[in-house]
Description:
5 helices; about 180 residues; 5-stranded mixed sheet; two-stranded antiparallel sheet
Amino acid sequence: MTASSPLPQPELSKIIxxxxxxxxxxxxxxxxxxEERQALAKRFDLPSIESITSExxxxxxxxxxxxxxxxxxxxxxxxxxxxQPFPVQIDEIFNIIFVEKTEIPASDExxxxxxxxxxxxxxxxxxxxxxxxxxxxxxxxxxPYPRGPDADRAAEKNxxxxxxxxxxxxxxxxxxxxxx
Length: 180
């Protein structure tokens, strides 16, 4: 039997032990330092992250921990068309619920999640990582197909169709032009 290697430390980590959460809510601020921002930019394949700040409220409920607040970030994303970096501002409200990790038996059955199930994070070892939750929230707030200010010009230069031309109505318009 071999010893398993420890899990890598998240780039942005702020561990809170459950014993630190009392009957009244905790509030605070998380600000990513330069090293954390560079590591997250690498993880998320971003040209750069200039700032990440989160104001939060953490409250214990009967069988869950409520983690709510805002995240603000200034960063650069690469345009999906031109590849050129352009500035992006993220201002996101989050509402995350931490619940104790449970073992789910393996099954071939599909599991359907409701929208309210999507912001649930499991914890174990009587601690939660607020920093990793903030990092995941930031990632989910990013546009998966970002279009920079020069996207249309780059698309035209490379012969790519616009969304209107490539869509079903664009195909009908082209057919109409051919039929005359």
